[in-house]
């Protein structure tokens, strides 16, 4: 199983990728908010896990900045979990 966490922003997205065994695949991957950046992320994920159902992706709901990435990842068959930004901020503070 591979876990991907994505911090969504206007022009770029920061990604953290780790296996269920705690092995870091990437702890500082920055992709652009473009098709090229999305393909880079997909390439890294697919080279480490052949089955999309073995990948869990979490990202923060940030309005329209992440819609293209969400749609791209869903078309590739990945399961996404969208987190409420207020809940994330509250968790960080606690």
Q: How would you sum up this structure, described in words?
A:
The chain has 94 residues and is of the alpha/beta class. The protein has 3 helices and 5 strands; from the N terminus they run βββαβαβα. The chain has helices at 35-48, 67-75, 85-93, and strands at 2-8, 12-19, 24-32, 55-60, 79-83. The radius of gyration is 13 Å and the shape is globular. The termini are far apart.
Question: Gist?
Answer:
It is built from three helices and five strands, in the order βββαβαβα.
Primary descriptors:
alpha/beta; 34% helix; 94 residues; single chain; 5-stranded mixed beta sheet; globular
Blueprint of the fold:
Layout: E1 2-8, E2 12-19, E3 24-32, H1 35-48, E4 55-60, H2 67-75, E5 79-83, H3 85-93
Parallel strand pairs: 1-4, 4-5
Antiparallel strand pairs: 1-2, 2-3
Proportion of residues in β-strands: 35-45%
Radius of gyration: 13 Å
For the largest beta-sheet, the strand count, sense and barrel status come to: 5 strands, mixed
Class from secondary-structure proportions: alpha/beta
Count of DSSP helices? 3
- Oligomeric state: single chain
Mean pLDDT over the residues? 92
Overall, the morphology is globular
